[in-house]
Amino acid sequence: MRNMYLTLAAAASISSSTFAFELTSPAFEDGQPIPQPHTFDGFGCTGDNVSPPLAWTDAPDGTESFALLVHDPDAPTGGAGFWHWVLIDIPASVSELPEGAGASDDSGLPGAGHHVPNDYGIAGWGGPCPPEDHSAHRYNFTLYALPAAELGAPDGATASLTGFLVNANALGSATLQGTYDR
Hints:
The protein is mainly beta and 182 residues long. It has a single domain (35-174), classed as Phosphatidylethanolamine-binding Protein. The chain contains 1 helix and 11 strands, in the order E-E-E-E-E-E-E-E-E-E-H-E. It has a 6-stranded mixed β-sheet with strand order 2-11-10-6-7-9, with helices on one face. The radius of gyration is 15 Å and the shape is globular. Residues 1-17 have low confidence and may be disordered.
């Protein structure tokens, strides 16, 4: 099994392509608000913290696995944003994640898929919960097609290191953006 962590030097950046790789959710449309059940339960937010259902089509040729990264670039963190969900090693045979797949016990995940801790410190979904009196934050759900069955991230990898490895090895990506404010 090829380990993508070891092939990092050979990787470049994601190139533009002509395929129609697409990520969607029946819970919200691109650019629209994320429904309250999918928001965080804590820090003053009262959501159910249940990950939304997602589906995708037309992955690029050569895809052996997927990684899903959900990031809030508007978080007041000095420019780093905030990682809400980091899920890697989703088998290439999978084309959807059901609602609740982000449970921290990995019970809703297909095959070898597993979580990397997000910026809440949770290995699983951590829903939106922007500070009060901020404008709406954007939540970028980006699904990456990868050329190996396993990313090979080292034990204890952070969300940022995982994101770096994913981006360095991706065959392509599809993004769905949700918003949320309170």
